[in-house]
Design goal:
- With about 260 residues, this protein is mainly α.
- The chain has eleven helices and two strands.
C-alpha cells in the first residue's frame, strides 16, 4: 500500500470536517498512521483514494482562489468593436478623395480677356494717379482725366502713338513736347505741363499688357464704341502679341 504523507491526511481530515462527514475532535493534527494502527477502538483513517480525491478538490479550490480577475480596461479592450481591415485603405484615401471632389466641383475660372487683363493692369499701375474711374485731377488725382472721352480726344485711334506714349511716358516724349493729336480741342497736350510726369511702362509691362490696358482705358473708361468686327480685330492683335497666355485663359472676347 502507498504511504500517504501526514499533511495530506490532515488536509483530507479538515476537508471532511468541512463537508460534515467527520466531527471535529479539537485536535490540531490528525492521528498518524502509527497511532491509528495502535488504537483498536479508534476510528479508522481515510483510505488512499479518499485522500487523493480530497487533495485534488483542494487543489482546484486553491486554483480558483488564486486566479486574479483582469482589469476592466483589459476586458474593454478585448470586447470593443474593432475597425475592419477593409476600412483602413478607405480612411487613408478619404482626404485625397475629398480634395479631388472639391476641385472637380469648383466652377472653372473665368477666361482671361484683353479687357480683364487691362483692368488688372490699370488697377495696379494707373489708378493711383488717374483714379479708379479715370477721373484723374477732376476726382482728386494727379494725372490727367481719362474718362468721358478724354483719351479719345488725345488719341483718336488705338495706334502706335498711344502705345508709344504708354511705353515711354513723359521722359521718352521729352518734357515740353506735344503728344497725341495736335488738333485736339483746347490744344495738344504737352509732356510735363501738369507737373505730374507720366511714367513709362515699357520696362515693367509686356507689349500685350500695354495693349490691353490701352484697350481698357479707351473702351471702358472713355466709352469708345466699336463694332463686333473691330473688337475681333483687336482681340486677334492682343493674342498675336501674347495675350491670354500668362494665366492659361482663353483669349478674345473684349467685352
Amino acid at each position: 500500500m502507498t504511504e500517504v504523507p501526514d499533511y495530506l491526511l490532515e488536509r483530507s481530515r479538515q476537508r471532511r470536517i468541512a463537508l460534515g462527514l467527520l466531527e471535529d475532535d479539537g485536535s490540531a493534527g490528525g492521528a498518524t498512521p502509527e497511532a491509528a494502527a495502535a488504537g483498536g477502538d479508534s476510528v479508522s483513517g481515510p483510505s488512499s483514494a479518499d485522500v487523493i480525491a480530497a487533495a485534488k478538490a483542494d487543489a482546484k479550490l486553491e486554483q480558483v482562489t488564486e486566479t486574479q480577475l483582469e482589469p476592466e480596461w483589459v476586458i474593454a479592450a478585448r470586447t470593443r468593436t474593432k475597425i475592419p481591415m477593409w476600412a483602413l485603405p478607405v480612411m487613408f484615401f478619404l482626404p485625397l478623395w475629398a480634395f479631388v471632389y472639391v476641385k472637380l466641383t469648383e466652377p472653372p475660372p473665368e477666361p482671361v480677356t484683353a479687357i480683364t487683363e487691362g483692368a488688372a493692369t490699370y488697377a495696379a499701375q494707373c489708378a493711383s494717379c488717374h483714379g479708379g474711374d479715370g477721373a484723374g485731377s477732376e476726382g482728386g488725382g494727379v494725372g490727367r482725366p481719362l474718362y468721358n472721352g478724354e483719351v479719345l480726344l488725345t488719341f483718336p485711334k488705338l495706334d502706335d502713338d498711344m502705345l508709344y506714349w504708354l511705353a515711354v511716358g513723359s521722359e521718352g516724349i521729352g518734357i515740353g513736347n506735344p503728344y497725341g493729336a495736335t488738333d485736339r480741342p483746347g490744344g495738344a497736350h504737352i509732356s510735363g505741363e501738369t507737373g505730374a510726369n507720366m511714367p513709362g511702362f515699357g520696362g515693367a509691362l509686356t507689349e500685350y499688357k500695354i495693349y490691353s490696358v490701352a484697350r481698357y482705358i479707351r473702351e471702358m473708361l472713355s466709352g469708345e464704341q466699336l463694332s463686333e468686327q473691330e473688337i475681333e480685330i483687336r482681340d486677334a492683335e492682343w493674342e498675336a502679341l501674347g495675350g491670354g497666355k500668362d494665366l492659361g485663359g482663353g483669349g478674345g472676347g473684349g467685352h
